[in-house]
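OP here, attaching both records as promised.
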Amino acid sequence: MTTADQKIAIMKQITKFFCDEPLSIMFLKPLEEDKKLTGEYKNRIKKPMDLTTIKKKINNNQYSGFQPWIEDMNLIWDNAVEFNSADSVIGGVAIYLKKKFNKRIMSINLSNLRNYEQQIINLTKDIQNILQNPPASFGISQTTPLSPKIEQFSLSRVQKLLESVQKLMEQGKSTEIINIIKSNEPGFEADPSTPIDFGEFSRKTLIALEEFVASNTQV
């Protein structure tokens, strides 16, 4: 399944979920023909939207990606609040459904981000292994020293890693983190009174810590 197919499948799945949600019944179809009501509605709501229309747009491949679809879904809830007010029953239901929808979208985004980060870590690890044990065809001696300089890591990457490690240490993962550092930095001595200086660590240590962070981060 291609990335585009996966996106369509996710859009269909979530849209169906809300179509099947009992509270969504008033948002399933375009506003029924009531001359007085529809006239006022059209004057105030410039772009009506409903779940059935969104399903048709998905099936007709009218969405270029997630964002236009997300905007249409949120438009349903926003229109309901704008026309009925947030204090009304319909407005309250719309606010609830919007929060529910965006929570699901957030979980998808976090999952995709974590998967991407893990792929980067795995790729970096593979490259590191190749450099440490290069095939003869590479023309590189196995004794070729690897640069241990932290400069090969961007400042933002190191800062992010530091913050993640600190959070895990606060969650009781200090022993595991110290053991990872010691296994890669033989001269390292843990001192509770002194902050850990990431600037002294090799790439190998930083990558090992990134892997630990990734495996202990909840999706």
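Record two, same layout:
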Amino acid sequence: MVGPLGCPGFTYRPRLEIGALSSRSSAGDPSVKERYTIDASVWVAALLPTDVHHQSSRDVLVRLMAQNASIICPTLILPEVAAAVARNTDRDDLAIQSSESVGDFPGMTLHLLEHDLAMKAARLAAMHRLRGADAIYIAIAAEEQAVLITWDAEMHNRGAAAVRTITPDELLSLL
């Protein structure tokens, strides 16, 4: 079956790992090669064929899936994707399906926003003049020692002070 992300073999599954990673973080685990936090800009571009970054976004997700990469995103990703897809397509059914496919993406772990992480994000937002949602992604990437993948130039540039940031095109050139 091919899901909304166009990934062969992708099927909907019951919930993967959902929860706060602070008690079961993969940081420091030698069996995990690389961790990624993927911003909504990449997921939305992969989901919308009309997006200028569609092909690169889709390609990077397919490559990460093939490598069984560990992907750690905030639960915030779900409403962000649903909202962006609904606004761009005017289809709530597609928006909800898209959000579900992101949450069920192979290797995905969704991270709850709890008080300690929210305060870390608040400090990052203040120190680096980040938007609130961007600071949440960056805080998770920092906590998990993950590479942040984004198309958002401001997030890419300002977030680089706290974590390694990269665009899908840059990552594709390295994979």
